[in-house]
Amino acid sequence: MNRTERLRHYEQMVLNLTEFPDQEWVLELFRFQATTNPVYKKYLALLGKDPSRVSKLDDIPFLPIEFFKNHSVKAGSWNHQQVFTSSGTTGLQTSKHYLYSESFYKQHSQNCFEFFYGDLKEYCVLALLPAYLERKGSSLVYMADHFIKTSTDVDSGFFLDDWRSLATVLQKKKQSDQKTLLLGVSFAIMDFSEQYSMDLSDIIIMETGGMKGRRAEIPRSEMHASVSVLFNTGHVHSEYGMTELLSQAYSKGKGVFALPPSMKFMIHDMTDPFNLAKAGKSGVLNIIDLANFSTCSFIETGDLAREISDGEFEILGRLDRAMLRGCNLMYTSLS
């Protein structure tokens, strides 16, 4: 099987997953990426890791997301169909994730959503993503656009500044008992809820995180509590994704995230990212994302997290990169 055939094989495997695969399958993908991805290959070499000697998932090194800022992270050589870019403060380098297949990403993001929420076609999808719509290359906007186009509801769409129309649609869907998803960046959800407080019980209010400099950062629990009161909903849902990951995790309340079949998480020690954190302790969130089969599936997210139960975690904040001096030195060596 040549590299092109192998990528197509992985693509079909990921699209058909119903549960996270066995260890050997993941180790096979690790060895493929360790030999075909020059950035990951050099990173492993700097760590002194021989891919052939890695025999369990716990021993796989995770690539920090910083490498997506200055490197083309690809397993093999292929022409990308799309480039996803991260948001960032003016003057700072943003991450780039080269997309092997647009059709794969559309179907896979839909699969992730439907794993938790059922048939996407049954939903009215309303997107409130101002900070993302104002720039190019957002994977979140790309996903939301696909969700809107897949929905069979004529009222589905993006809402940038027209909050009055959004409020009207939400009230209409509430009265008709139509399944509805309001997907929005945190600051926009908060701003909208403060201007248009209304009864949205039974409507899924889903925040995607981040104030993006528009409001002061507050704990997720505080944001959820405020929105829940203003919209008379028992809980606020959350989506967890990033430019460097092609899968999405979801929370149905209290900021506790569960994973689709393409993802597995590990919590590593904050001061030593190559060792697992003790049970119940917070640490660095590392994710195996099999949807990244054409780039790197083993990603250190830069987020602090804590395992809540088997297969579930909560996000506590961002990692202070200064604590990981060894990783920073290796990043400099690869730059």
Structure overview:
With 335 residues, this protein is of the alpha/beta class. The strands form 2 sheets. Strands 1, 4, 5, 6, 7, 8, 9, 10, 11, 12, 13 and 14 form a 12-stranded mixed beta sheet that branches. Strands 2-3 form a two-stranded antiparallel sheet. The radius of gyration is 20 Å and the shape is globular. The chain has helices at 3-15, 23-36, 38-47, 67-70, 102-117, 130-133, 139-150, 163-176, 186-195, 220-230, 325-334; strands at residues 63-64, 82-85, 96-99, 124-128, 157-158, 180-184, 204-207, 237-240, 249-251, 256-258, 263-268, 283-289, 298-309, 312-318.
List keywords for this structure.
2 domains; alpha/beta; two-stranded antiparallel sheet; 11 helices; 335 residues; twelve-stranded mixed sheet; Luciferase, domain 3; 20% strand; globular; Rossmann fold
List the helices and strands and how they pair.
Elements lengths: L2 H13 L7 H14 L1 H10 L15 E2 L2 H4 L11 E4 L10 E4 L2 H16 L6 E5 L1 H4 L5 H12 L6 E2 L4 H14 L3 E5 L1 H10 L8 E4 L12 H11 L6 E4 L8 E3 L4 E3 L4 E6 L14 E7 L8 E12 L2 E7 L6 H10 L1
Parallel strand pairs: 1-13, 4-5, 4-6, 6-7, 7-8
Antiparallel strand pairs: 2-3, 8-9, 9-10, 10-14, 11-12, 12-13, 13-14
Helix pairs in contact: 2-3, 5-7, 9-10
